[in-house]
Structure formats: C-alpha cells, structure tokens
Amino acid sequence: MPVWHASISIIHNSRPLPVERWAPKQWDKARRRLLGLLAGVGSLDDYWSTLPATYHLRRRLKDSEMAMIDPTWMALPAIDRG
Predict the structure, then answer these.
(1) Residue ranges of domains in the chain
(2) For residue 72, what is the DSSP state?
(3) Distance (Å, rounded) from C-alpha 49 to C-alpha 75?
(4) In 3-state terms, what secondary structure has residue 37?
(5) Chain segment 12-63, per-residue pLDDT in tens
(6) Rounded Cα distance, 34 and 37, in Å
C-alpha cells in the first residue's frame, strides 16, 4: 500500500543528533514540521516512528489519491527499505 512519508533529523556538529538526545522543544518543532509537510494529503491515520536519529510520519493515501495511481505501478512488488 503506498503511503505519504516525511522524516526529519536534527544535525548537530555536522552529524545527526540521536533522538534520545532531542529536547522536548525539538520534538515539538519536528512534529509540527512533519505535520506541515503532509498537510492536506493522505488520510488522518498517522503512523509515527523513530529510528536512532530520525523521526518519521507515514500516512495512507486517500481513496481519491489512490485512484490517480496507474494500476501497472500498483502491480509492482513493494520494497521496504526500513
């Protein structure tokens, strides 16, 4: 199933800052930015996740968005890279 996906990392001293070191204000700002990036697209069933230095937001496509996807593309096997 195709999804909208946005992710954010914080760079500190030219390196990604591990999420365990993010301050509450950084979490809030990251969440607002991710919601802004996906504003107006997808369904409202958000899936939030983290990796060691990245915060992710995934959202299923709306039926109207799915209808715009070429069926031959939908027939391709999915690749999950994490």
Answers:
(1) 3-64
(2) H
(3) 27
(4) helix
(5) 999 999 999 999 999 999 999 999 999 999 998 899 999 999 999 999 999 9
(6) 5
